[in-house]
Structure formats: C-alpha cells, structure tokens
Amino acid sequence: MRNSSPYDDPTLGLDLPEPERTPKAAPWPRATGQHSPNGDGYGEMIARLRGFLDYVAAARLDPGTVAALSDDLGAWSERLADAAVPEREQVFGHRDDMPGRGQTMAPALRVHEADRFSVRGTVRFGRYFLGGNGAVHGGAVPLLFDEVLGRLSGSGGRSRARTAYLHTDYRSITPIGPELDVHGWFVSEEGRKRVLRAEIRHDGVLCAEAEGLFIVLKPGQP
Fold this sequence. Notes:
globular, alpha+beta, 8 strands, two-stranded antiparallel ribbon
C-alpha cells in the first residue's frame, strides 16, 4: 500500500533492495536545449518545472489561487506516488543526456567545452534561487559547484567519487537572471583523492570560486 503523502514517507522507495555497483558518469551533454534526444519529453517537463518554481517564487498569490494550486499539487502527488522506484531506476537527476541531468535542485549548466580535465559552460539562476536584493542565495552557489565538480570528477571514464569537502569563497554578488560563465578544472589526482576547482564569473568579474576534494568510492561503498 502506498503512502498518500510524501511527508509520510519522504524516502519514497529508497529502502528497496538494489544491486551493488559503482557506476561511471556519461560524457557531458552539449548545450543543445532541454529536449532529450530520444524525444520522450522529459527534458521539456523539467524545463517547465524550473519555470514553474521561478513563477511560484515571484508570485504574490491570493488565497483562492493558493488553495487551487495546493489542490492541484496534492492531486499530482497522489498520481506520482504509485510511480516511485528504487534509486537506480530513478530518472530525476540521472539523465546524463541533458543539461542539469534532468533535476531542478541546481540550475542546469549549459556545457560548451569539456574534456577529461576541465569543463566550461554557462548558467542562469532563476527567481527560485533568489536570496535577496537581486543576488543568488548563498546556499545555491555551492549546490552548483558540487554539481559541476562532482560530475567532472567522474568524467572521462573515471569511477564516481563522493564529496569530502567543498570550500566556497564569495567574491562578489552572483546575480539572478543574466548568463554567467562557469569553469571547472582538475587540480590534482592521486590515488582515491581528486582535488578540483571551479569559478563563476559575470562579464569577467569573479562572483564565487570553490575547491573540492572528492574521494573515489570503494567497491560496494554507498
């Protein structure tokens, strides 16, 4: 029997048994739009979900709209509850064929150049990520850095690694709206330890930079 609300069981199937494996990351997708190559519509759905979150963040809603939207969201939660699957079968955040891997936790990086040791691309933070005074929320910046560096750490046929630390320095305001340049690169790779760095720039001005240590997973390690 399924739960009627995600608040009753926030794991939604994560406790189901899964085979042990240490997957490798797929190559970076190029900036060709949110539509997935196989035409299943998932990319467009995620793009609309991103837009929806921006509109919700920007809106001042009257009580009637709040109630109607709440009912609609509740109905969709009910409909999706039966579709919950184990983590290895999950689609959200696992679509390596599209920018952002088909997730909405962090803005989608549009990759323009990438190889085994570096990646360059652009990103836009929508209203959903607003902290205040037109600036990106301070917690959203490390989310992007972890997404970029974690993906780069496992690129080029390497086994996946887990974040050990991620140090972020804020150098200037990261603005909501405009296109920002993102650059990530390897600093060193020794044994199971991989050190990487990344930066975000707006019109050449350094907004934030980060250094992360990633540890390669052992066989069977979660």
